[in-house]
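Record type: monomer structure entry
Structure origin: computed from sequence
Chain ID: A
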Amino acid sequence: MSAFEIIKKTHFVVVTIFFLIYLIKTILLLANQKENLQSFTKKIKVVEMIVSFLFLGTGIYLMTQIPEIKTELIIKISMVLMAIPLAIIGFKKENKMLAVLSFLLILGAFGLAEMSAKKNSAKV
């Protein structure tokens, strides 16, 4: 297995973990479980920072390895970049609408990536 394939699989795993963390946080916020949300956020803080760093690092590496940046990728990156500040504000201020919007943007970016991967594997 090449370094590219290892990093690609690592990226998928860290994105999935990132997605699950935000799913749990969003559910806790929507369920008005403020104490549980604060406890979960505190317990997962270091893991979330590591996952976020790996998400960013592996994503940047993978972007440098592709021959051209397509519109789908620009949309996906834009969605993730919009989701981050919305999530920070949404969870800090306990704003359910911003947190849900952030989660939906992350879900959309994840969906776009999977659709693109399926489309590219069908070409091979």
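Annotation 1: DSSP finds four helices and no strands in the chain.
Annotation 2: The longest helix spans residues 34-64.
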